[in-house]
């Protein structure tokens, strides 16, 4: 029983940091369980606790998951930054094209008025 409390406290602390404070722990666990990844994590934790395995292995699992998520987030941030720079360049180029064609239209209109 002493093993279960720190693990469940950790799970609930992580989960409640991500959801509204008005939700009960059961609601939080139900939300985690709805997600296939969350369900897998909870299943592994239940199995580990049921077999009386060391809590350290659960902590290693959670640390590995957190590390992988942090790495994935860093990669996604780099892609987002690169995409943002590329899109800003495209927008600037398009703004120049619009300005160029607007000037052409004005000149064409003035020339047409001058010729008539």
Alpha-beta content class: mainly alpha
Compressed to H and E, one letter per element, the order equals HHHH
Pick out the low-confidence regions.
none
Largest sheet: none
Global geometry? rod-shaped
- H/I helix tally: 4
Q: State the distance separating the first and last CA atoms.
A: 95 Å
Helix percentage: over 70%
Q: What is the residue-averaged pLDDT?
A: 79
Please report which band the strand proportion falls in: under 5%, 5-15%, 15-25%, 25-35%, 35-45% or over 45%.
under 5%
- Radius of gyration, Cα only, in angstroms? 28 Å
Total number of strands: 0
Give a verbal description of the structure.
This protein is mainly alpha-helical and 116 residues long. The protein has a domain at 1-53. Helices cover 87% and strands 0% of the residues. The protein has 4 helices and no strands. It has helices at residues 4-18, 25-34, 36-50, 55-115. The longest helix has 61 residues, at 55-115. It is rod-shaped, with a radius of gyration of 28 Å. The termini are far apart. The model has no long low-confidence stretch (mean pLDDT 79). Residues 1-22 form the signal peptide. Keywords: Signal.
In short:
87% of the residues lie in helices and 0% in strands. With 116 residues, the chain is mainly alpha-helical.
Topology:
Blueprint: H1 4-18, H2 25-34, H3 36-50, H4 55-115
Helix pairs in contact: 2-3
Question: Tags for this entry?
Answer:
single chain; 116 residues; 4 helices; signal
């Amino acid at each position: 029983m002493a093993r279960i409390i720190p693990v469940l406290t950790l799970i609930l602390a992580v989960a409640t940091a991500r959801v509204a404070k008005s939700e009960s722990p059961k609601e939080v666990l139900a939300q985690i369980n709805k997600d296939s990844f969350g369900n897998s994590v909870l299943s592994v934790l239940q199995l580990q606790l049921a077999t009386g395995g060391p809590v350290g292995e659960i902590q290693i699992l959670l640390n590995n998951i957190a590390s992988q998520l942090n790495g994935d987030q860093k990669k996604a941030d780099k892609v987002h930054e690169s995409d943002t720079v590329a899109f800003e360049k495209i927008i600037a180029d398009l703004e120049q094209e619009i300005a160029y064609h607007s000037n052409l239209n004005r000149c064409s209109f003035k020339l047409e008025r001058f010729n008539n």
